[in-house]
Prior knowledge:
By secondary structure, this protein is mainly alpha-helical. It has helices at 2-6, 11-22, 26-32, 37-55, 91-108, 121-142, 157-168, and strands spanning 110-111, 114-115. The chain folds into two domains: 1-57 and 86-108, no CATH class; 113-173, no CATH class.
Amino acid sequence: MSAVRTNPRNWDGARDALIRTVRNDAALLWELFAPYRSQALQAALTAAATELRKTETPRATPRREDGAGQNMSDGPAPSARPSSAPRGISAAEVSAVTQTAAASLLDTFTVNGQPIGDLTSREANAWAGSRERDARFVRLLTANLPDALPIRRYRTAEDAAALYAQAKDGGNE
């Protein structure tokens, strides 16, 4: 809405503003391209199948006396692209989108306010360990509780503290 608000009669400007807003946000990009995911995946798989066929040598199917397993076609293998596949998306375009999405996760997935791509593996793993502890705590805290009622109706502060200590110990109590 802000892109249109700042460019009310200039769709090119609105489009550019929207792109600037979402280009480094993997979640927004994922939602923006939701209607095109299937087409993009089909194009990427088709391009990969085409490249694979170029590099593979044809394998001869051994002849069997009963005729089973024989390839009856002398022509090239059929295309991996179904007749309804989208046209006009090049492998380079698919590759560019894939690289942008992957790079944007390194920039947009943050750990303690820093892009994950800037962390060392030790820092990232320490963060993941703390999240695993938190997840264990939540699972212990909510075990056997009704889905639609607040947790505090069933757990006391002391219960929560004991379960947090258990989660901190790796759930081995």
